[in-house]
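Q: what sequence does this backbone want?
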């Protein structure tokens, strides 16, 4: 049996309900869980390149407030609560860039602890529960933030692991993981999951995505499949070709008897064999 965790990044207070519904109704109707890495208090002035707003702000619509907590979008919160197939995962705090670095690629321990705690509180107060899985914005950690997150969460989901982004005391354990060439590992009770990249992205040709995805799933017992809802609606226009591929992915995952789509909660609770070495 192969296991898949679908992780969609960057849901926030400015995310249109209609976009999530269009993308993930085929998953929800098939009973396939969708894990939404949700920004608790989205920063609305994050840019890249020549002052271009980040993609997850595609529906900003002139919002002037710098930080907008999830709880301010009651329509979105009600929609998420009404559809039990959605599972909320904490995605940093605000997703902002601080002094040229991602918010969890910082070394100020007090600020990191505050962002974790306030983010968790905002999601809980919005009625979205308390997640035990954490996703850092841009998948970027510092050794300090990695250690503090690991103290508070059962699962860390990120793109990759490297020496300079983890506490030195983890290095022996990481060396063993590297020797075994396993994608996932653990430190104490915290499970650390990597992912093979974003297959369902506008950076990849739609014609080959499904074949590449099928091949990728055969290479590991558990695969974290990462998407970004806003990539399907750049400039607030639906990319019909990409959406069609996503929906074909839902059909493929639901119909393959050797694949089970699970949530991060299943991993947290020990219901999924995540270690290829077991």
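A:
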């Amino acid at each position: 049996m192969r296991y898949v965790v679908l992780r969609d990044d960057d849901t926030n207070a400015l995310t249109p309900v209609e976009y999530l519904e269009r993308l993930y109704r085929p998953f929800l109707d098939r009973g396939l869980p969708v894990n939404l890495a949700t920004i608790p208090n989205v920063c609305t002035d994050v840019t890249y390149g020549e002052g271009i707003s980040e993609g997850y702000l595609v529906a900003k619509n002139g919002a002037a407030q710098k930080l907008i907590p999830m709880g301010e979008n009651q329509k979105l919160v009600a929609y998420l609560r009404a559809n039990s197939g959605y599972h909320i995962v904490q995605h940093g705090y605000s997703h902002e860039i601080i002094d040229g670095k991602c918010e969890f690629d910082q070394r100020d321990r007090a600020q990191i602890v505050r962002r974790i705690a306030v983010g968790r509180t905002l999601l809980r107060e919005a009625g979205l529960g308390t997640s035990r899985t954490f996703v850092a914005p841009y998948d970027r950690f510092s050794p300090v933030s990695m250690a503090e997150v690991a103290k508070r969460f059962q699962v860390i989901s990120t793109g990759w692991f490297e020496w300079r982004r983890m506490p030195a005391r983890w290095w022996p354990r990481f060396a063993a993981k590297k020797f075994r060439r396993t994608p996932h590992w653990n430190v104490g009770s915290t499970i650390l999951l990597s992912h093979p990249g974003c297959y369902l992205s506008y950076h990849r040709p739609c014609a080959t995505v499904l074949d590449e995805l099928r091949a990728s799933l055969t290479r590991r017992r558990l695969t974290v499949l990462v998407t970004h809802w806003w990539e399907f609606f750049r400039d607030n226009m639906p990319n019909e070709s990409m959406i069609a591929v996503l929906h074909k992915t839902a059909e493929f995952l639901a119909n393959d008897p050797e694949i089970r789509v699970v949530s991060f909660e299943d991993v947290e609770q020990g219901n999924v064999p995540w270690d290829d070495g077991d």
